[in-house]
Amino acid sequence: MTRSPSNHRAGRRLALIVASSLLLPxxxxxxxxxxxxxxxxLFGGTQADIAPFLAAFNAGLRDLGYRDGQNIVIDTRYxxxxxxxxxxxxxxxxxxxxxxxxxxxxxxxxxxxxxPSVPVVFMHSGDPVDAGFAxxxxxxxxxxxxxxxxxxxxxxxxxxILKELQPRLRRVAFLASPEHAGQRLELxxxxxxxxxxxxxxxxxxxxTPAALRTVLVDVAAEKPDGALLFSxxxxxxxxxxxxxxxxxxxxxxxxGWTAFPESGHLLSYGPERHAVWRRLAYFxxxxxxxxxxxxxxxxxxxxxxxxxxxxxxxxxxLALPTAIVVRATRVIDAPVEAT
Length: 339
Hints:
Helices cover 45% and strands 18% of the residues. By secondary structure, the chain is α/β, with parallel strands linked by helices. The chain has two domains: 36-148 and 273-295, Response regulator (Rossmann fold, 3-Layer(aba) Sandwich), CATH 3.40.50.2300; 154-271 and 303-332, 3-Layer(aba) Sandwich (Rossmann fold), CATH 3.40.50. It has a seven-stranded mixed sheet with strand order 7-6-8-9-10-11-12, with helices on both faces. A five-stranded parallel sheet has the order 2-1-3-4-5, with helices on both faces. The longest helix has 29 residues, at 5-33.
């Protein structure tokens, strides 16, 4: 039977309609897969503290082909050292359904504790296993991974440098917060390092800024030859006040992060944190591409830096040996930050 031209045209229109309807789901799926992925950042400290490291993290993302507002959307929050604010911000972040949360300091625990869970990439100054965020460094086994700065083997080197700068070093005061995950391990390693160098040790701990000020009364009465500060949230947050105290009492102090000598402490020796933050982008990339945090090994820092504050040394009548100046990544000559 011969079809009329009108019937033929009607058949073609029907076929096109059917074909178009079959393509709609595929196009919808493609559009969804091309939608920008949401990355939430929850920082335990202040915007000013984290700004240079956030720039390093964003640079790492750009190197991997990510552009904010194009293929990713970045949502950044700051807890300002408040546990209550960190918990509230984590809830707000969860409501936006991010693909991954990048957290540090006081932001890690609330991000990790969200239910249902969200993949977490952390920069942790302590021990993530001791904190309960992972089963082991090699195989985290949970929904969090990232980089731990708790490189215990650096402690003896830190104290050796302090002894080079303060030849009369005999007694060292350790200051730390017991809330810091990994504090027990760091204290044990610090005591072992002191014993190796023939130093006497006193240990002072505090959980709050008010308690820390009380502890400093005991430190002043003790008159140690030097101080070692653990790189926990309390010490970081109170670093300027601590620098003023140690300068007043002529007690040279050392820690693991450059923020300390930048604030007036004598020296730091530890991870180069810009490189650490840049490396965190690798973990985000792997998770966005389908990897599970449980299968991504937690890393330790690869780059170290020595930073010395020459102004503080001069104020304490300490000479900077040429060997230290040559080895230093940076020697600070500018005035220290205001307290």
